[in-house]
């Protein structure tokens, strides 16, 4: 019988274990929602908000990763990579989005290849914040004809149009 020498076995483990871990991560994230040409702008916002409401399901930060999946390539240039995006979403002013208790959506406003929607999020302690989402329909590349998030920002209470909700 041929046996692998301990030094060779150790070297193989050093190479194969990180690769196996990466494969596991890829297979976990493979089940998360992804952009599709069939999704309307409002669908994208609802997918993101729903994922963030249960951030650690099916695994830690899956909701934020779903949100990152729907970030436009231009958005990712400013907010990525994923690890940086996770830190940003968990920090103020976005932290309320993670595991929020409730959400209320305005109508979607379409302007050509751009869309806007406001979402009122309520935390467990009753605090509420309105966020504006700006999306664009991608014109080329792997996301051609797919709606993706370009920006999200909180609105001051005074800036919230009463007719929005």
**Average of per-residue pLDDT values:** 85
The CATH class turns out to be: Alpha Beta
Element order: H for helix, E for strand: HHHHHEEEEE
SSE-based structural type: alpha+beta
Question: Can you walk me through this structure?
Answer:
- The protein contains five helices and five strands, in the order αααααβββββ.
- It is α+β, with helices and mostly antiparallel strands and 165 residues long.
- The protein has one domain: Nuclear Transport Factor 2, Chain: A (Roll).
- Helix 2 packs antiparallel against helix 3.
- The N terminus is likely disordered.
In short:
This protein is an alpha+beta fold.
What topology emerges from the helices and strands here?
Blueprint: H1 6-30, H2 41-53, H3 62-69, H4 73-79, H5 82-90, E1 102-105, E2 109-111, E3 114-122, E4 128-137, E5 147-155
Helix pairs in contact: 2-3
Keywords:
globular; 5 helices; 165 residues; alpha+beta; disordered N terminus
